Structure formats: C-alpha cells, structure tokens
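Workshop exercise sheet. Pairs work together: one partner reads the sequence aloud, the other fills in the structure field after running the prediction. Swap roles for the next sheet.
Pair: D.N. / O.F.
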Amino acid sequence: MKLRNALCAATAVSVMAAGAAHAENLVIATVNNGDMIRMQGLTDDFTAKTGHTVEWVTLEENVLRQRVTTDITTKGGAFDIMTIGMYETPIWGANGWLVPLDDLSDGYNVADILPAMAGGLSHDGTLFAAPFYGESSMIMYRTDLMAAAGLEMPTAPSWSFIAKAAREMTDRDNEINGICLRGKAGWGEGGAFITAMSNSFGARWFDEDWNAQFDTREWSDTLNFFVNMMGDAGPAGYATNGFNENLSLFQQGKCGMWIDATVAASFVTNPNDSLVADTVSFALAPDNGMGVRSNWLWAWALAIPAGTQKKMAAKQFIEWATSNGYIELVAEKEGWANVPPGARTSLYQNPNYTSVPFAQMTLDSILSADPNNSTVDPSPYVGIQFAAIPEFAGIATEVSQEFSAAYAGQQTVAEALAKAQDITNEAMEAAGYR
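Structure field:
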C-alpha cells in the first residue's frame, strides 16, 4: 500500500512538473469561506511542485457570484479559475463557457468523486468542475443548552420540535438566541435556506406549467413559521445574516441551534476558534412529516473558463486542490477534522476521518438530498435550494430581497409573497416559459 501511494504521489508530481517548464501566474476567484481561506495558506505547496504562482481574488458569496457570472457571460477573461457551484456548472458547461475536465490524470482518480457531486457538476456525462468540498445542511446545536431546556434532540427532528426548542433555549438577558438562520438577501444565501425549508412544508417554486407558486398556503406557512420563530428566538438583525455572520455568532456562544452547511461543523468544533467547541452535536435538517427534509445539496467547485490562455496550468491547480493529496496535506497541517469534506468516497472509508464526530452525519445528510425529487408535489425543475434554469439566479435574487425586507419588518409576509409571485411570473413569461 505504501509503495502504491508513493508511486501515485510521484506520478502526480511528475505530471505537474511536466507543465512547469513555462511557469504561469493563475488568477483565481473564490469565496471567503474558511476552507477556501485555508487553501490559500497552503498554495506554496502547489508552487513548489509546479512553479506556477497564484493570485487570489477573494470575495463575499453574493459578490463572487455576480463577478464570475459577469466575467463568464461577457468573456471578460479576468480569471483563469473560478469557484462556482452546482447551479452554474451544468448551465455554463452546456453553453460552452467552461473547459471540460475530461482529461485529468489517472492518479487524480475522478471515479473517487462522490456520485452526487460528480453528477451535479456535469453536463451530458462530462465533468466541468471539480468539487473542492461538498455539503448538505444539518442542525448544529449546543448540548448544554438543550439539556438545560429539558429537551433531547432527535436524530431526525421535526420543525415543530425545532421551534419549541428554539424558544426554550432563548435567553435574551445573556444574549443567547435559541436559533440562528440565514435571512440575508441573495439566492445562494437566505434564498437557499428558505427554499430548502419550503420544500419540507410542501411548497415549490413552480408548478408543472412553470407558474409561480408563492400565492399558495404552503409558501405562506413557510414564511410565517420562519418569521415567527426568528422573531421569538433569533438574533436581532437576522435579516442581514448569512453563513459567515451566523458562524461567528455560534462560535461566540450566542446560538443554541444553527441549521446550515455541513461544512461548518469543523469550524464550530475547533477549540481554537469556537468557545463552545466541546458542547456541539449534530442532527439531520428538520422535516414536517411530508417525506421531504429541508436539507440542500451543494458543492463549491473549481472550474476553468473557456477563454483562459492557461488551461494546462489551471488543470494542474485543480488536480492539486481537489485531490486526495491535498486532503492529506490539510490533515498533516491541521488535523483530519479540518479536511475538505463531502467530495470523495475514499474519505468516508478512511478510519482517520470516520472517527471525526460529524463525519457520518455529513455523509447521511448528503446522501439523503435528492435534487431530482426535492418537492412534495411534482415540479418541472431539478435542484433543491435552486431551480436549475438560467433565469433562476436573477429571479431568486429579487425574491430573496423581498423576503429579507419582510424579515426586517419593512413589509408583511403577505406583501413579500405577492411581490415574489409577480416578479417570478413576469420573468418567466418574458423568458418564454409561459
């Protein structure tokens, strides 16, 4: 085994070194999430192996999506590698905007990528982006506060239990919010959370004829439940909180529960960053007994825009950053709990990782997410927290802004839903769906 690993590592290094005869400077656009920041601190290893240097453009999630979308659609050529996800990849791949990743080296082992991740990052069977990490969403909660409330978290709780627990765990005098959830505008921020949540309430974005469904009882139930629970047990200003803001609140001990990306588990359990690291446990995202949970499926992945002049060097970086070798590099430097999760099958067969407290719950959450059957009633789209159509990002950004305005008390839930209905139907009619 050791000999085989050594040979694979030697092959990977020689493949990288072969392209280093002409060293390039790669410009990479990425999101300001913890795993991406960690990768930036380790890129000296890539430069040492290949001779290529890296220039990072690190952006907040909403800004990243705007910048890379503008660049790819206008053929701006600002980036050699982009951090994108499961929504953009199949659409952009179909449009010919991305370089196919169909010739990665044997040592990279494409077959090791989790099928859910490879499928979501492909078009017509061709991989167009490689997952840096994969995620679903799950509940992270304080065991000490749950016990103090006299409650025990089920492995697969209902939303009614979560709402009860959130109110019981809230302690305003000590700045403890029973629950912290995304309310920030943006289709991939608060929009992603409320869409995944709505699935478990029986809601959907469109019926089978592409008519908007925001005028239904199911959407009203979703938003009213969310606003009431957050008003009673959420933090002040939750309408502007996204992933990073809630991560900070949880790490400071100001949240009893947080439902968000499974990738956050390594950060809330890291004693160097989290004041509550020793009292965190995990459960599946809630449901309502209707057969659909409220967890999403996503991968932050690396892709190469078709206009780059540095395709070979860019592929070398992608192989380095999304390989088993990179996982082992992070494990060596920062421990197995901090390696990028959710991308490779072999990680969940590695006893060094399966002993990590959140590893199995992360895998269970990923495997329970089904983008092809994400709603209670039939829908015409693929996707859980998004609909995989080109128009969705623009529509959902506007809709999420209306929802955030309702969270902030600037309008009623009914007003927000009425506007969402009009925004969506007008856009879909203009795009020729209706």
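Discussion prompt: Residues 1-15 have pLDDT under 50 and may be disordered. What would you look at next?
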